[in-house]
Amino acid sequence: MRDVISTDQAPKAIGPYSQAIRAAGLIFTSGQVALDPATQQVVAGDVAAQTDRVLKNLAAVLHAAGSGLDKVLRCTVFLKNMADFAAMNDVYGRYFTQTPPARSTVEVSRLPKDVLVEIDVIALA
User: Fold this and answer.
1) Is residue 75 within 8 Å of 120, Cβ to Cβ?
2) Per residue in 51-94, pLDDT tens?
3) What are the counts of helices (DSSP H) followed by strands (DSSP E) for the chain?
4) Which of 40, 42, 72, 118 lies in disulfide reach of 78, CB 3.0 to 4.6 Å?
5) 39: how many CB neighbours lie within 10 A of its CB?
6) Are residues 33 and 114 in contact, defined by beta-carbon separation less than 8 angstroms?
7) Average confidence (pLDDT) over 20-42
8) In angstroms, how far is CA 71 from the centroid of its own chain?
């Protein structure tokens, strides 16, 4: 059994996918980018500002699923430029202060809407 998770507190899906799926006691989120859910526009600013918005979006999706950032097991971070790692990591660390999840961070050539960062997570339901 699997449940589709959807909330208007995070950006709408911009393609044929769900914001998240809950199955087998886990939440699998789609990648979130720095879109303001109220406007569906990319937030202004550098990678720190974008990382902050991405993590707020992920928190909203997890909340809608009955979970939260404190239940995240694994994150994948996609950066447009690995030179932004320290700035992204600083903001990321403010959201995951105790028992941070496992994580991979990779540099990619391009992201949707030409954003600087995208993050997806797997969390406990």
Assistant:
1) yes
2) 999 999 999 999 999 999 999 999 999 999 999 999 999 999 99
3) 2, 8
4) 118
5) 9
6) no
7) 98
8) 14
| CA-to-CA separations, 109 to 59, 89, 100, in angstroms, rounded | 26, 19, 27
- Residue indicated by tokens 């992920």: 58
Show me where the domains of the chain are located. 2-124
Class of CATH domain 2-124: alpha beta
Which of 6-27 are b and which e, b meaning 16 or more Cβ less than 10 Å from the residue's Cβ? ebeebbeeeeeebbbbbeeebb
CB 14 within 8 A of CB 30: no
Q: Which amino acid is at 32?
A: Q
Max CA pair span of the chain: 41
